[in-house]
Amino acid sequence: MGRGLLRFVIVRQLTAPGPGGVAVLELSGAGVREALAALWPAALGAPRGGPRLARLECAGELLDEALVWIESEQRVELHLHGSPPVVARVLAALSARVAAADTEPSILEQRAWELLPHAASEAGARILLDQRDGALRRELEALCAVADDEAAATSLASLLEAGRVARFALVPTRVVLVGPVNAGKSTLFNALVGAQRAIVSPAPGATRDVLSERAQLGEWPIQALDTAGERSVPLDAVGGELEARGQQLARESSAEADWIVRLWAADAELPPPAASRPPREVWVASRADLCVGGAPGGCDAYVSAVRDPRDAVAQLTRLFVRDHALPARAWRAGTAAPFDGSSRRALELARSLLDARARNWREPLLEALRR
Ligand SMILES: Nc1nc2c(ncn2[C@@H]2O[C@H](COP(=O)(O)OP(=O)(O)OP(=O)(O)O)[C@@H](O)[C@H]2O)c(=O)[nH]1
Ligand SMILES: [Mg+2]
Fold it and tell me: Is the distance from CB of 233 to CB of 244 less than 8 angstroms?
């Protein structure tokens, strides 16, 4: 395996820092065997699996007798004695070895690799793997070679659009459920999360605290928040202060929402005219199965999270995709996408230079390729 591949190896300590019986290090990425071979040359030919006893040596000095587990060509675990100085020496030797190999202009690819554990969805992980394999670099290089400014502007716009879409796959969108008490917010929240996470009750005002869980709308990751129902309770009534605090928390959550789902119990209350709907908000008529004589107009969807939770989630997914102008599939193999703030900023700068007809519009892109 080539020396260059070592640049994708990441060394992490899995156990808590400080003295302990055992300290476990993880080496992940392409080239883990080569990285480990700096301390244990037999790593190059050792069969997969383990644990296997390894004498770790650095510059002829024995550092530790460790257990090595070669899980795959991308991941190795090293179980050391948990003495902090020993761990520090091994970490230093491994990191020096990895850093020494990191001399090629690979930073775009390396950043994509390092973000991989933080991808919020499978589609996001696949997008990052494509960029790790050079999709964005190739596209930026091709873009810099385009002579015609109009063609360059079109390619830039579609790259920026790919970056906008990638962001929805990489970072969970904050989706807040709001609405009157008993509208079925917690029921829908449980359907989204796929578990009985929130208390559901016919008694109005069951939810007080904001509940927050990761969920998916189709392929798109979200952070779903369930909030206290809206109603007016005088402060001096029994429980009035608690109620007010719950409602305040709900308002704070909606102020920070990326997307608000407002539920109206279709059997209880008619929504006001759609013209009064704020931006970033969809209106969903809930408890649609209880609605005799047809559901009221003015809502974007009609759901019954009790009778058909899958349909309720599918309907929300449809609205989410519509409101954020997302494609049918979150990931298309091999597609270039700016995947982090740095690559997006470089493209935005290039676009504003191009818009201003500046001759040096390629510079931010060349810089992104160099950095
Ligand atoms: N038939 C039917 N009942 C539903 C549906 N969704 C919710 N409910 C019922 O409506 C009642 C209130 O549901 P919740 O999910 O607790 O409502 P909520 O909006 O969270 O209420 P608060 O937390 O009090 O604001 C419960 O008895 C649910 O079983 C539905 O789609 N169909
Ligand atoms: Mg509730």
Answer: yes
* pLDDT tier for residue 102 given thresholds of 50, 70 and 90: very low
Do the Cβ atoms of 103 and 95 come closer than 8 Å? no
Q: The pTM is what?
A: 0.74
Q: Is residue 361 a contact partner of residue 353, using CB atoms and an 8 Å limit?
A: yes
Is the CB–ligand 1 distance for residue 253 below 6 Å? no
Cite the DSSP H helix spans in 196-277. 240-255
Q: Please provide the size of the chain in residues.
A: 371
Nearest ligand 1 atom to the CA of 228 is 25
Report yes or no: 168 and 365 within 8 Å, Cβ to Cβ.
no
Ligand number nearest CA of 201 is 1
Mean pLDDT of the chain: 89
Q: By the 8 A CB rule, do 220 and 242 touch?
A: no
pLDDT per residue as tens digits for the range 295-336: 667 788 999 999 999 999 999 999 999 999 999 999 999 999
Third-level CATH fold of 173-307: Rossmann fold (3.40.50)
Query: What is 62-85 written as a DSSP string?
Result: EEEEEEEEEEETTEEEEEEE--HH
**Distance between Cα 190 and ligand 2 center (Å):** 10
Q: Which two tokens stand for residue 136?
A: 């964005």
Domains of the chain by residue range: 3-101, 107-170+330-370, 173-307
Check whether domain 3-101 has CATH 3.40.50.620, yes or no: no
**Cα(30)–Cα(1) distance, integer angstroms:** 9
